[in-house]
Amino acid sequence: MTALIEAARAPTFSADVSLVLSNDPAAAGLEFAKRMGIAVAAVDHRIYASREDFERSMDVLLDIHRIEFLCLAGFMRLLTPWFVGRWQGRMINIHPALLPAYKGLNTHARALADGVKIHGCTVHFVVPAVDDGPIVAQAAVPVVTGDTAKTLGQRVLTQEYRIYPMALDLIASGSAVLENGLVHIRGSAGTDDRALIQPEN
């Protein structure tokens, strides 16, 4: 979230962050957003009888603030088909693995247990299936001898901070287009380029 807010401050960035919405009224991100002059709201999921009731309250707030596009960041709630359908094609998420590998939790430990040599993160459009959906961009990091879930996760997180703002900018500028279940990245020559970022040296 902080990376998105900071990137959006650049005059050349193609999107504005207009609202930070959390299901936790005590989330630290709300205070950060307020300090940055961004509207904040909290909808405590614990007071609702059902997930859809909670999501309908969120949807009302999003409508009040005239939100056009959603970026999930640290939002650890499963969304119902109703909400996903309501925001289909207008909601992205970042996942700490190179999808379609390692969906779900504990991705770094699972990757290490499998002995993979390349790990990373993925920005994707949200669909009803968890950690699925059309891929917008990916960033790869090498797995090195002696890695732990913590050290590997820190390197992946560094790439998440780079790739999430880039993906949002591509979508908001019209350079990334969702067509027939796939995302096409329009290059400067009018061709499709895959948005795969290699880690910095």
TrEMBL record:
Keyword Transferase appears in the UniProt entry: yes
Enzymatic reactions: N(1)-(5-phospho-beta-D-ribosyl)glycinamide + (6R)-10-formyltetrahydrofolate = N(2)-formyl-N(1)-(5-phospho-beta-D-ribosyl)glycinamide + (6S)-5,6,7,8-tetrahydrofolate + H(+)
Catalytic machinery residues: 95 (proton donor)
Gene Ontology MF annotations: phosphoribosylglycinamide formyltransferase activity
Pathway membership: Purine metabolism; IMP biosynthesis via de novo pathway; N(2)-formyl-N(1)-(5-phospho-D-ribosyl)glycinamide from N(1)-(5-phospho-D-ribosyl)glycinamide (10-formyl THF route): step 1/1
Keyword Transmembrane helix: no
GO cellular component, one term: cytosol
Residues of the site described as Raises pKa of active site His: 131
GO BP field: 'de novo' IMP biosynthetic process
Source organism, top-level taxon: Bacteria
Keywords from the named record: Purine biosynthesis, Transferase
Binding site for (6R)-10-formyltetrahydrofolate: 51, 76-79, 93
Pfam families named among the record's database cross-references: Formyl_trans_N
E.C. number: 2.1.2.2
Domain Formyl transferase N-terminal: 2-168
InterPro entries for the chain: Formyl_transf_N, Formyl_transf_N_sf, GART
Function (record text): Catalyzes the transfer of a formyl group from 10-formyltetrahydrofolate to 5-phospho-ribosyl-glycinamide (GAR), producing 5-phospho-ribosyl-N-formylglycinamide (FGAR) and tetrahydrofolate.
PANTHER family linked to this entry: PHOSPHORIBOSYLGLYCINAMIDE FORMYLTRANSFERASE
Protein family membership: Belongs to the GART family.
Name of the protein in question: Phosphoribosylglycinamide formyltransferase
Species this chain originates from: Lichenifustis flavocetrariae
Gene from which the chain derives: purN
